[in-house]
Amino acid sequence: MYDFNYHKPGSLADAASAIAGAEDGKLVAGGMTLIPTMKQRLAAPSDVVDLGGIGDLVGITVGGGTVTIGAMTTHGAVAASADVKGAIPALAELADNIGDPQVRNRGTIGGSIANNDPAADYPAALVALGATVVTNKRELSAEDFFTGLFDTALDEDEIISSIKFPVPEKAAYVKFANPASRYAMVGVFVAKGSDGVRVAVTGAGDDGVFRVTEMESALAGNFSPDAVSGISVSPDGLNSDIHASAEYRAHLISVMAKRAVAAAG
Amino acid sequence: MPTVSMTVNGKSVSGEVEARTLLVQFIRENLGLTGTHVGCDTSQCGACVVHVDGKSMKSCSLLAVQADGAEVTTIEGLANGEELHPMQEAFRNNHGLQCGFCTPGMVMSAVDLANNNKNPSEEEIREWLEGNICRCTGYHNIVKSIKEGAANM
Ligand SMILES: Cc1cc2nc3c(=O)[nH]c(=O)nc-3n(C[C@H](O)[C@H](O)[C@H](O)COP(=O)(O)OP(=O)(O)OC[C@H]3O[C@@H](n4cnc5c(N)ncnc54)[C@H](O)[C@@H]3O)c2cc1C
Ligand code: FES
Ligand code: FES
């Protein structure tokens, strides 16, 4: 790892000016992705701005049909939160199945979505639940936020402060985890909310998270596993790698979707 | 160079470090506490697990500056003088180690589990060990050790 200037601001405003003033600055949250990347010298920022000193970015609140999670809230804290378990149990369960306990004790929801790894779990939850990403500059819908492989709508000096999840009527997430890393080979998040049913898939698309609208319309009329069992997804645009072929991933999407609908009840 | 201060195994320590210094380097090289191991250096194996403010974390994936002001416990901080910590004692009783390379991380990880769950099932223990890799034992005796250690804590 190359050396860098380290900053630990105490407020979002100070963090924004530190990152804007840096030659080639990077924010660090839990560091579970950024630090390994810097060790491999795939990233070599001149300045690292640590969000760990900003208390306002940590915490979970529930009210008015919305669960709001601060960007620096760890996966472990989301998994253990009685509020999240009560309002959106599928989200707590998703967080509880990310990586391993030590990764969950450091990794954050803000870091996970900013990174937009095509195999990460949270992007499926944000898109299926119709979440809103709040930054120091604006609010973005999840679908506008995730723009492609490891890519988001964030500007260079933009910082996520929280994510707002509308509480659904029912929801479930089922993933087929890579047995070594626990990342999703295919993960399907199904949610039924006030504006209909959404089905979001992670781990499979070569452009990151995506919705399966054909399954959504079928489930809108009949929310049961049978409604999706006949719908197959095309392998075009899906990833093929040593873990699974595009055809296998396409097959897994239908299977995981069926299981998710059954789990949502 | 930044200065870091933290409490390690109950003692206040501080030192000047490069910003890129990992917590595990600070612990091993600056403090000379070599019980914490580096197996993979890529956040997979868990040999480097320590507690930071009471939670288990991989010290190879944390900067020393990120732990500024924290309370850190390493494997050296568990025993009470000559008397082993119940989790260490359980690993000894149950032959929970062979070469011992993974053991400090296993024990630190197991203590974090037991702090929140006095009576973990075999399945819970195996799931919890997702981030700890052992190349020798085949895990059976590690699981037995953790069951006994948790009960005695
Ligand atoms: C062994 C292992 C297994 C894993 N398994 C899984 C898994 O099963 N599923 C899964 O989803 N993930 C998994 N992960 C990834 C993990 O969830 C990471 O925690 C996450 O991807 C990054 O979060 P972080 O807080 O560590 O971010 P960091 O590594 O600190 O940052 C990641 C990126 O996001 C940017 N960033 C961070 N916070 C903000 C913010 N508030 N605003 C704007 N930009 C920001 C940073 O600049 C950086 O570019 C795994 C990681 C490891 C090491
Ligand atoms: S050395 Fe830290 S996880 Fe392997
Ligand atoms: S005892 Fe040798 S690696 Fe676990």
From TrEMBL, chain A:
Pfam family, one: FAD_binding_5
SUPFAM superfamilies cross-referenced by the UniProt entry: CO dehydrogenase flavoprotein C-terminal domain-like, FAD-binding/transporter-associated domain-like
Molecular function as annotated in GO: FAD binding; oxidoreductase activity
Presence of the UniProt keyword Lipid biosynthesis in the record: no
Lineage top rank: taxon: Bacteria
Keywords, in A-Z order: FAD, Flavoprotein, Oxidoreductase
Translocase among keywords: no
Ranges for domain FAD-binding PCMH-type: 1-170
Record's protein name: Xanthine dehydrogenase family protein subunit M
Lineage, top ranks: Bacteria, Pseudomonadati, Pseudomonadota, Alphaproteobacteria, Rhodospirillales
TrEMBL record, chain B:
Top-level lineage group: Bacteria
Location of the 2Fe-2S ferredoxin-type domain: 2-78
Matching Pfam families: Fer2, Fer2_2
InterPro entries associated with the record: 2Fe-2S-bd, 2Fe-2S-bd_dom_sf, 2Fe-2S_ferredoxin-like_sf, 2Fe-2S_ferredoxin-type, Beta-grasp_dom_sf, Diverse_Oxidoreductases
GO molecular function list: 2 iron, 2 sulfur cluster binding; metal ion binding; oxidoreductase activity
Presence of keyword Glycoprotein: no
Keywords in alphabetical order: 2Fe-2S, Iron, Iron-sulfur, Metal-binding, Oxidoreductase
Entry annotated with the keyword Secreted: no
Family matches, as PANTHER family: OXIDOREDUCTASE WITH IRON-SULFUR SUBUNIT (PTHR44379)
Protein name: (2Fe-2S)-binding protein
Originating species: Hwanghaeella grinnelliae
